[in-house]
Give the backbone structure.
Amino acid sequence: DAKTTQPTSMDCAEGRAANLPCNHSTISGNEYVYWYRQIHSQGPQYIIHGLKNNETNEMASLIITEDRKSSTLILPHATLRDTAVYYCIVRVALTGGFKTIFGAGTRLFVKA
Amino acid sequence: DVKVTQSSRYLVKRTGEKVFLECVQDMDHENMFWYRQDPGLGLRLIYFSYDVKMKEKGDIPEGYSVSREKKERFSLILESASTNQTSMYLCASSLAGAASSYNEQFFGPGTRLTVL
């Protein structure tokens, strides 16, 4: 199964860019990388996904290395409300569907 | 907006009780999932379903069963609750598709179950 490795926690100053790394060295060539975040007492929320190219949306940017073995989620101007656990995930194909493998995630603390 | 609702935010049950956790989604999604979340362990998949009356075991199915009689509803059942099943339970849904296709999972708010 493809798995991901993330740092346990990170700090970021408010207004600065938060760069969250993820290692997914066993990812298959046709699997997307997804990022979700979970704010305390809520269910995980989708942020962004990518396959090979870098991606950007209104929430974040995703940089995927050329060999696809790692990626970085970038929150360009972190705010206190971005304090959350961030999950980098890949999915594994199964007969009839897929399953998602969540790791322990990175707890991001944005400080004033 | 997709909405995934779970029957309770907080639930307290006693050891040995039969527990039902209900999940309903309103976007006609084919896939539905049940996870449990414990400190330091992230989310772990218990069961998932990709169609009505279909179910597949996830990574930690022991002690649990599921039911999907209607497309919009996916129930998680603890036949005889035990203290080690005290956890946060999260339900999710998504459109059908292979792992190689994009289909976002939408999560409910979670049910915090305490088994005494």
